[in-house]
Write a structure and sequence with these properties.
Elements (H helix, E strand, L loop, with lengths): L9 H9 L5 H6 L2 H14 L8 E2 L2 H8 L3 H14 L2 E4 L3 E4 L24 E3 L10 H12 L1 H4 L10 H13 L9 E5 H13 L5 E6 L3 H9 L3 E6 L1 E3 L10 E3 L2 H11 L3 E4 L13 H14 L2 E5 L28 E6 L10 E5 L2 H11 L8 H10 L4 H26 L13 E5 L5 H11 L1 E5 L12 E5 L7 H15 L17
Parallel strand pairs: 4-15, 6-7, 6-10, 10-11, 11-12
Antiparallel strand pairs: 1-3, 2-3, 5-13, 8-9, 12-13, 14-16, 15-16
Length: 508
């Protein structure tokens, strides 16, 4: 019997297939079954379709795709022959990898420790721990641990001292909050998954920004949610200024989508958006809330980058959190210590009405029961007195790297362009027609991990974009961009790079 991790429904696989773009000439020349097999193979090798995922039955998928059953059956047989599918009578078919094939490459996953010295990681956007503050906070937390060790150690809503610290930080940011409005989770993704599981049913519509955070988009797809993308608008820069337009929400488009689709949920990242870095002003936040209220939609606000305003002048007040503008308790907020403090702590939280917090706490006991106590105590320490110094230290790192990229990218890749954000963890870069997906695949062979733009779209868009993290040391940026430019030049030799083109490995 297969040990698959998840079952992919026909509608969910159909939506994923729309994002698996094959080269245009190949797609038009191939029979339909080979195109379908190639799309599924691409999803597996890029890690967007998990190895061990149970695929729909042939008849069900044929109906969903409006293809003949023979086409689907032949595609499945092709995948079995190539080693990308295994089947057992009565058990179905599940994705696999050919014998000896490396695991699927995913630039958004951390580089394994044994590869860190050989790989240039331009995929994962995560900062190193802030020292010496982390070490000092850990020592103080260990001193407190015996007070908690006499009990069972399970805190479904979180350790009280951390709930109080998170509530206090929201209050400082202009959103009065009490500890009973806070649920501590195992990372922000744990919070997002929990909210999604409780509030979103299979087949429910979810409105999402386009582009948006890749991992949340994938989690929503695999849960069976129906994604409705809402494109960003772009505000032109100063007249004559050689800067790309700045991304912003399009209120008219949001109103149209919320009124027409009536989604169960609207998922947004208004504070230093991932991947564009956009910061949404209060007026647009109010407009979104009004449109969502009229549509009966819950607004799920992802605030994981909210503390990362490295380019915001000290004299400029930041917009208040979206929930501060909400009088109808329609906003659920997810935050994280992982971006500002350290991802290794695995601390996230949900801010919501107390009744929903209790409901979420009751649901989580069927998954992880609670978040590790020691991690919570360390986070509570860092969110106290050291927070101002930690924040200044981390923002200095991001600011220096952003300025280094702003100098090096135009010098070595003059056709590439990006809006310079005022915060966040990444640059959203337009690659002047180069396929980001193909560049990422070429980078895998050359020891350069690149996050392709189509990972951040719900419909395969943003093929000619990449996300570049601001978390590499500033001193290494010139050499990193030189290497990226050399990879791009070699991969595009003889014409613009298409998704199926090959590149020779670069010397490390």
């Amino acid at each position: 019997m297969a040990d698959w991790h998840t079952t992919v429904t026909p509608p969910a696989l159909a939506r994923l297939l729309t994002t698996a773009r094959l080269p245009e000439p190949a797609a038009t020349r191939r029979p339909a079954y080979r195109t379908l097999a190639g799309q599924i193979r691409l999803l597996v090798t890029e890690g967007r379709l998990p190895v061990g995922a149970r695929l729909p039955a042939e008849r069900e998928l044929a109906t969903a795709l409006e293809l003949s059953r023979t086409t689907v059956a032949t595609a499945y047989e092709t995948l079995r022959g190539d080693g990308y599918l295994r089947s057992r009578r009565g058990a179905g078919s599940w994705t696999a990898l050919p014998e000896g094939a490396p695991p699927p490459g995913d630039a958004l996953h951390p580089v394994p420790p044994d590869e860190q010295g050989h790989t240039l990681d331009l995929g994962v956007a995560a900062l190193p721990a802030p020292q010496p503050w982390l070490g000092a906070a850990a020592a103080r937390a260990v001193e407190q641990l015996p007070c908690y060790a006499a009990g069972h150690g399970h805190y479904p809503t979180g350790v009280p001292v951390l709930r109080e610290a998170v509530a206090r930080r929201y209050t400082e940011r202009g959103l009065p909050t009490t500890p009973d409005q806070i649920l501590i989770t195992t990372g922000a993704m744990g919070g997002l998954h929990l909210v999604q599981r409780v509030l979103v049913g299979r087949g429910d519509r979810v409105a999402v920004e386009a582009p948006s955070y890749a991992h949340t988009l994938q989690a929503l797809r695999l849960s069976g949610a129906r994604l409705v993308p809402v494109p960003y608008a772009y505000r032109p820069g100063p007249t004559g200024a050689p800067v790309p337009p700045q991304p912003r929400w399009d209120p008219d488009e949001w109103r149209r989508v919320l009124r027409g689709a009536a989604p169960r949920l609207a998922y947004v990242i208004p504070d230093f958006h991932n991947p564009t870095g956009a910061l949404i002003d209060e007026e647009q936040r109010r407009e979104l809330l009004a449109a969502a209220r009229a549509a009966g939609s819950i607004v799920l606000v992802d605030e994981t980058p909210a503390e990362l305003g490295w380019g915001v002048p000290e004299s400029m007040p930041l917009p208040r959190p979206v929930a501060a503008l909400d009088r109808a308790a329609q906003v659920v907020t997810v935050g994280s210590a992982g971006k500002l403090l350290w991802g290794g702590l695995r601390i996230g939280w949900v801010r919501a009405a107390p009744a929903l917090v209790r409901r979420l706490a009751g649901e989580r006991v069927y998954s992880d029961v609670g978040t590790p106590v020691l991690d919570q105590l360390i986070a509570a320490e860092l969110l106290g007195e050291p927070l101002a110094a930690v924040r200044a230290h981390q923002l200095d790192r991001l600011r220096a790297t952003a300025h280094a990229f702003a100098t090096a990218l135009p010098e070595h890749l003059p056709g590439w362009s990006f809006p310079m954000p005022t915060g966040g963890l990444a640059l959203w870069v337009s690659t002047d027609g180069v396929s980001g997906a193909a560049l990422a695949r070429a980078g895998e062979r050359a020891g350069v991990r690149i996050a392709s733009g189509n990972r951040f779209g719900s419909d395969g868009a943003f093929e000619h974009h990449v996300r570049i993290p601001l978390t590499v040391p500033a001193a290494t940026v010139p050499a990193a961009v030189e290497r990226l430019a050399a990879l791009t030049e070699r991969a595009t030799a003889g014409g613009r790079l298409g998704p199926a083109d090959e590149a020779q490995p670069l010397a490390l």
